[in-house]
């Protein structure tokens, strides 16, 4: 019979929870994550991206989450955009068990995590912060 220490059990459970949440432990930036939004295939998703608004959906196809987003102006800028602006379409395949990230010019980024089996997609907006190195004296 194999014996497990309480530390190894706690470490294994912590690792499993982080994996299920789709956390990327190797992010190389400073920033704050918004709360995650989890959607199933064919369900709509919508989230703000700085001065923009994104809406879209995903399909469980080709071994991953086939994601389609439309990104356009939000708020008062959207009313001005109706007079001649347009939205941008973004499509990508996020492989099952992997993440993809989209950055914007005005700061925020969005991260997409496709679950194993492409049964759900987790979306998190990241408010990126500039890094300021300490002054050398």
Tell me what portion of residues adopts beta-strand conformation: 35-45%
Overall strand count? 9
**Global structural class:** alpha+beta
Q: Please provide the ordered H/E string of secondary-structure elements.
A: HEEEEEHEEEE
Number of helices: 2
For the sheet with most strands, the description reads: 5 strands, antiparallel
* Relative helix content: 10-25%
Mean pLDDT rating = 75
What best-fitting shape do the alpha-carbon axes yield? flat
Q: Work out the radius of gyration.
A: 19 Å
Termini separation (Å)?
60 Å
Domains counted in the coordinates: how many?
Answer: 1
Q: Uncertain segments of ≥5 residues (pLDDT<50)?
A: 1-31
Description:
The protein has 137 residues and is an alpha+beta fold. It has one domain. Helices cover 15% and strands 42% of the residues. The chain has two helices and nine strands. Strands 1, 2, 7, 8 and 9 form a five-stranded antiparallel beta sheet that branches. The protein has a four-stranded antiparallel beta sheet with strand order 3-4-5-6. The longest helix is centred in the first third of the chain and has 15 residues, at 6-20. The protein is flat and about 50 Å long. Residues 1-31 have low confidence and may be disordered.
Task: Pick out its properties.
137 residues, alpha+beta, five-stranded antiparallel beta sheet, 42% strand
């Amino acid at each position: 019979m194999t014996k497990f220490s309480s530390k190894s059990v706690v470490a294994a459970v912590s690792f499993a929870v982080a994996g299920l949440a789709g956390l990327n432990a190797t992010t190389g930036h400073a920033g704050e994550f918004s709360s995650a939004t989890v959607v199933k295939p064919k369900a709509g998703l919508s989230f703000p991206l700085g001065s923009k608004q994104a809406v879209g959906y995903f399909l469980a196809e080709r071994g991953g989450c086939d994601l389609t987003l439309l990104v356009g102006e939000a708020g008062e800028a959207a009313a001005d955009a109706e007079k001649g602006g347009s939205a941008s379409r973004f499509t990508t395949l996020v492989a099952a068990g992997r993440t993809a990230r989209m950055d914007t010019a005005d700061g925020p980024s969005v991260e997409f995590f496709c679950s194993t089996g492409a049964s759900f997609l987790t979306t998190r907006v990241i408010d990126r912060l500039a890094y300021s190195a300490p002054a050398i004296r």
